[in-house]
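Table S2 (continued). Query chain:
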Amino acid sequence: MKYRQVTGTLGIVLRRLREDAKKDGIIAAAVAFTTLILRVLSTPVIRILRRKRVFQFAGRQYPYFCHWYNTTFDNERAVEISLALAAIKDAQGKRILEVGNVLSHYAKPAWDIIDKYEAGESVITQDIVDFRPDHPYDLIVSISTLEHVGFDEDNGDPQKIFAAMQRLRGMLAAGGYLLATVPVAYNPHMDRFLQEGKIFDEQRYIKRVSKDNRWVECTTADAFLASYDTPYMFGNALIVGTCRNNS
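Corresponding output:
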């Protein structure tokens, strides 16, 4: 397995500590470590200060999602988790699949979860291209996961995403809906496929515009001008892709 991206605040802290120590020395690493810990501890205050903050997307208003885990108030999780949880709320009582074990860190899941690498309670640890559920799903959600398929794996295969999407489309019930977020500029192959319109039925875009993590809906051109991990850490623009089974 090539993909070993850490998850969770502790994992991020340890990774940054190692990287900073190697790059800038132990003192700089200690400063970075302390700063990140303080940001985690500041979550309750930030939640209060930003409790009325919202963003607009696809004609609908959403609250920014603020949580200490992965310090969501400081990255793209603030918007993509809000979008995903709203979709799940709209599909309450229906059959739901999450691709990538993300939401269980923020909410008690009442849906199926599949993740090839990250184990967890009730998580199906299987490659999505091999998954054969015994029933279709009314909603499939995926948060910053599809860009890793065939890219952050041993024997990487850029074309694997097409097999994955074929499987996901085949799992949608009649009238079913897929919602996925993908960060721009993380996987160059995925970016190309997205620009060519080969992955989703419809794509919308949202980008980060400030240090204090405000996001605005944007054009295709603006989204694909974004970089990953600069000027802000992690995703600076997101593709929100959707597919529907209209049969």
